[in-house]
Design goal:
About 30% of the residues lie in helices and about 20% in strands. By secondary structure, the chain is an alpha/beta fold. The strands form seven sheets. Strands 16-20-17-19-18-23 form a six-stranded mixed barrel. The chain has a five-stranded parallel beta sheet with strand order 3-2-1-5-6. The mean pLDDT is about 95.
Length: about 525
């Protein structure tokens, strides 16, 4: 996030897109509700009307995969009416002319044709956001999990720069992370193209820095993403795989493909706290400690690094992740002799400039937001004050591209996935709770009332939902939360895994799969 959670309360316009905020991030939602109680305008764009959408001043339902056209339409209106922050554009950005040429192609009438959102609503969205004193954008994986995910995010960055809603309190472009330490994993180099603190592996000086710190020769090439790893196993390029705290047999797209890949691995090692469909395929399962059974740090969506302390000892042979990695590394020939999580953090401070000013004593209490370059620095609540990290903000000229797969005669429905309020992610933890399981014991497929009537479906009927990759069975829930011709399924249920159906087509830049859009057909089961 460019800004902090607390700042949301003082925004006077909040634009939420691709985020089921009350379900996925309820504490963030409370900040948004406080802003609304102070008079902030709340705009929500989502193909499925969630609770946050029902509470919005303006809710719009765009077609799946049409986000770029919607945002471009808003920016066309802003430019046409002269609502942009011209002083910000001229002093803080570049490439505006090329950007404006593309935006000229998206009058609200054309954007309406692509998105299904009325031209009047597109104008209202643009006016609310552009005329705000402090406009904040909040998004989540409903924006990123597309073959155009990078385009979607860059379009939101364009919108914030066009109106000067960035680099100030209560503004910015604010992605909500999908799990509790995703930000920390990325900060520590858990991406194939960077070392810790987002230092590129392709830069010789950076590589030399880490070679010296780690006393090892490092490759100069970018590594593989998750889906590229799965393909690499099947093509014989990868022989072994270590999976930590991840359950790709439920969470990854095209699960049949994932299963074939994991079964083909010569050595599959899985670290987890509970058995999962993924551990069932492992050659070795190493029991890991839970968050309450280890010391360390977590970094949340607002870049806040928080210290956690061991509350109870891990059961049986379970160990903290760093201890497991240390022992694996020692046995594989690269010696590690770390004695504690704090010792590891001291190394992090030396190689990651954004963490340099943090220490365990300083992190006691509320923690610190990076960048925090010195031990006297208070941490950074919001980014890009005065200038962007690259100097001038770069407008990107982004045209609309449709999803990789759209409905046709054989597969006539749009299909999308997401979370339910009861369960978390792949259900590894929440489905072990009898109270939560009683609340939602099985998967449901949401179907619009008109589609249900046309197919003679009743509430609770079982349907087979099939895509070009596989099929699952699920009970029907009839609701107008979704639009006609669209079906929705939560992805928490291994026995009715929504990701059996989803498309593994990748964004060409970020290589993230298109979880949020594919084509399916429904058939009533006797």
């Amino acid at each position: 996030m460019t800004n902090s959670f607390a700042e949301l309360e003082d925004a006077d316009c909040i634009f939420i897109i691709g985020s089921n905020t009350t379900v996925g991030h309820p504490l963030v939602a409370t900040r948004i509700f406080r802003a609304k109680s102070k008079g902030a305008k709340l705009i929500v764009a989502d193909p499925r009307q969630t609770q946050i959408g029902r509470l919005a001043d303006l809710y719009v339902r765009q077609r799946l995969g049409s986000d770029v056209a919607l945002i471009n339409g808003m920016m066309h209106v802003i430019l046409k009416n002269g609502w942009q922050n011209q002083a910000f554009v001229e002093s803080r950005t570049e490439n505006f002319e090329a950007f404006a040429q593309v935006i000229e192609k998206f009058p609200p009438e054309r954007a309406a044709e692509i998105t299904g959102v009325s031209a009047d609503d597109i104008v209202r969205m643009a006016e609310y956001y552009a005329k705000a004193e402090a406009g904040s954008i909040v998004y989540c994986m409903g924006i990123t999990q597309h073959t155009t995910g990078v385009d979607n995010v860059r379009s939101l960055a364009n919108l914030s720069m066009l109106c000067g809603h960035i680099g100030r309190p209560s503004t910015g472009v604010n992605p909500l992370r999908g799990q509790n330490n995703v930000q920390g994993a990325c900060d520590m180099g858990g991406l194939p193209n960077v070392y810790p603190a987002y230092q590129a592996v392709t830069v010789p000086e950076v590589r030399e820095k880490f070679e010296k710190a780690w006393n090892v020769k490092l490759p100069s090439n970018v590594g593989l993403t998750i889906m590229e790893m799965m393909d690499g196993i099947q093509h014989g390029k990868i022989k072994g795989l270590v999976i930590m705290g991840e359950n790709p047999m439920v969470s990854d797209p095209d699960i049949h493909h994932v299963k074939h890949a994991l079964e083909a691995a010569e050595c599959l090692v899985v670290l987890d706290i509970f058995p999962t469909p993924t551990t069932e395929l492992a050659h070795v399962v190493l029991p890991a400690a839970s968050f309450a059974e280890k010391d360390g740090t977590f970094s949340n969506s607002e870049r806040r690094v928080q210290l956690v302390r061991k509350a109870v000892e891990p059961p049986g042979e379970a160990k903290a992740d760093w201890e497991i990695i240390r022992e694996l590394s020692n046995r594989l020939g690269y010696p590690m002799d770390y004695k504690s999580s704090e010792e590891i953090f001291e190394e992090i401070r030396k190689v990651a400039p954004s963490y340099a000013g943090m220490t365990y004593p300083r992190l006691e209490g509320e923690g610190l937001c990076w960048p925090c370059p010195t031990t006297e620095h208070p941490g950074t609540a919001y980014l890009h004050a005065g200038k962007f990290s690259r100097g001038l903000g770069l407008f990107a000229a982004i045209d609309y591209r449709p999803p990789a797969e759209e409905p046709d005669e054989e597969y006539p429905f749009w299909f999308t996935t997401g979370r339910a309020y009861v369960h978390y992610h792949t259900g590894t933890m929440t489905r072990r709770s009898s109270h939560l399981d009683q609340e939602m014991p099985e998967s449901v497929t949401e179907v619009h009332p008109e589609d249900a009537k046309r197919m003679s479906l009743r509430e609770g009927d079982v349907v087979e939902v099939a895509s070009r990759r596989g099929s699952v069975f699920s009970r029907v829930q009839i609701t107008d939360r979704i639009g006609k011709g669209v079906v929705f399924m939560p992805f928490h249920f291994a026995e009715s895994a929504a990701n059996t159906l989803t498309n593994a087509a990748l964004d060409p830049v970020a290589k993230i799969p298109e979880y949020k859009v594919c084509a399916v057909k429904l058939a009533k089961v006797a």
